[in-house]
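# step 3/5: fold
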Amino acid sequence: MKEHLRRYYKLYLFFLFLSVGIFLYTFIYNKGIFIFDGDTYQQTFKYYLGGWEKVHSGTLSTWDWSLGFGGNIFSYTLYFISSPVFWFCTLFPKEFIPYSLLIANILQLWLGLILTYHWLQKLNKNSIASIVGAITFIFCGWNLGYMRYELLLIATVFYPLSLYYTEVYLEKKKFLGLCISLGLLGISNYLLLYQFIPFLCLYTLMRYLNINKNNLHLKNTVIESLKFFSLVILGVLLSSIILLPTAFIILNMPRFSSGDNSSLLLMNGFREIFKIYSSLYTPVLERQNVNFFIEASQHGNIGWGGGASLYSMIITPLLLPLMVCLKDKFKRNSFLLLEILGFIFFLFPFFSKLFNFSIDTRWLFMLVLINTIIISSILDSFISHELQNKYILFSFFINLLVLCCIFFISYYFKLTSIQNLTFLVKSSFVLILIMLLYTLIIYKNKFSLLLVVLAIEVLFCGVLLFKFNTPLPYTMYDSENYSSSPVQWIKENDQSFYRILYDKRQLNYNDDLLDITAANEPLAQDFKGMSFYSSLYNVNQEEYLGRFKSTWLMSQLIGRENSYNLLSAKYFYSYAPVQPVPFGYELIEETSSYKIYKNENFLELGYVCPNTINSSVVSNLSYLLQDQIMQKYCVTNSSPNITVDESNLELLISFADAETRILEFDKPISNKRLYIENFGIPHLEVRTYFEEREVDIIDLWQFNYSSIVIDENQPIDKLVIVGADEYGYGTMVNVYEEDLNGSYENAFNEMRNNSFTNVSVTNDIIKATINVLEDNKTIFTSVPIDAGWNIYVDNKKIEYEEVNFGFIGFNLDKGIYDIRFEYTAPLFREGIYMSISSLILLVALNYFSKRKRQY
């Protein structure tokens, strides 16, 4: 180890300089905070905060109550629970997490540079060629575009690590490192593993054929291919502890299980091809529009989530054309074949959907790695004098011609704005100068100077990236802004089963309002809530969640108190008077920075339903009418009842297409609840008036419906609803009225008298008592339906069913019962057994292989 460090310490320090230097802009202008609005802030950062809390408080378990109404923790293992970056962050105080994310990025880039260098040294004769290859891969557009996603940046570490151990296997038949590296990749990021395996197998086949090109036999090639693939499978099985329970969720997600009926022969068009391949000549600028040669609106949404850049420093397009000049015929042909295959994979969107389950282009790292291998090999040939230096001059002028064509196409077809083109002219001038330096250095055989110019280009790309993509301001992460005092107060004063609602909190920054709270606030502060933001979630509740969420975002909605009351909502806290306090909540705690309210209509865990109704009667109704029925009935698939009592709601008016809708009452109304049912309008503004004086104004960014309470002390005589048909599909708004005559409170008190008592929750176990006064009664619980739950009544396991479109219910006869809910994530135990078995098999195989090599 000491000898290794003595040999490479200067190189490692150079790599560290680059890894830190690319973030120089962030260190200077944002105090080292490297978190962007969107997924980085709303998902990664919030997950890390909540994960840190769970780890340090000992509440980490396979069922997470803070994910929506509760969910399997393997829904988001990708985001934090299996991420090395997350566990790195847990080593620091919670307040240091915003800073530790940047440190983690630097470490990943640094390790990636080191590992990529050692992998390429297995392929090249000269170390400078390997250093250049490592830099072009680690600071490529794919990585720069994903710099804000720590969970994807882990590829920079594990891809070269696995490729290094692949070379060890091909050279020495040692497979332990290969299998373990694949297993760790699968645990850290199963999506990256899934995308990497096809490339790894193709790469290994090419390398095997190259190594044995003078002694090839079909039978031996097939046998060796099968051996290698078996080792890959063994490596994958090592990560079964994560893969199996996660696969159980993924395969049931509509996003992945619905399939794709598009034609296999459907091809990307000219604009999509232009976007990807012209990106070779421009660093990543805007993270949502990585290639300024073509606007994001000018192509078929290819690479909408990132990864849509082939840029790998300007030396890459300079060297790539020279693959046709390589003297090694096998290398030349295999490189050309790999480039052609890469083009075919991109040309047909079917492959993107196969590799990524969408038209996203995260799989393009394959092309980046291929380019890395090719240019390091070409440079190695130059250094070894196997290529004539004059070729680099031809390539330089060819690239100038190509770049001029790209500018012409972009301008002539109006693929981008004049403003973008103007900036590209300036940045391209710098890049052409750098390309000219590369050309002269190679032509003059001054190869060590390549590293100096590369370092300059890396720093230049870093400045451009962070100039165009400003992280969220460091002021958002002040301890005051991230105080969890209201949640701590609630937890310290109440250990029962309840959910918490919260108000939006915002920060005024440069005249913009930035949301400090987000849908993942329950996750961030580790409390039972009513919202989430995750692409994977408890899909068993999909039918119920549909009334709250859009895609994979479920926000906390205004005016849904009646639904939340059934789901054990007990507290609401607010930092500022941004939205109305939910109806039925009373102030119980107030400080200079927050207020806490308590729900008068709290129902703990669940209750004995007085009536049931068959789901076939309810399922086709609007969400508003469904929720009204569920106030009186428990909806089940097995109920014989198909008759519903008359609703308490009175339809006042239905508005067809219009931007402004006005309802004037014959006489002032008070002590009422008005329901605004919305079809097709994403943003509604609801205003109430009394005698032409504005009483209240509420902004609603939500579909389905909302409600407002008209206080008995503040009547209204006019309702104005403003909202445009933004999507052009047609709109409709219904307004219903409900009397607040105390009937709801009386009915709710009856439910509360028949609810669970003695409720206790510890990680994956709930214990409670319930008193059933009649035979054959359905028990409703606010525990989400999930295959991992087992329910025991007086220590006897019982069957349960889905009720209210997404919750657990079961039948009991008259009596007092002790109920126990236990959760085990589906396939989690099987995953543990398979990982352990695979590890034992790997150790045994390695032992016998080692003995065989010794003898």
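# step 4/5: annotate
Residues 298 and 415 are 6 Å apart (CA to CA).
# step 5/5: archive (pending)
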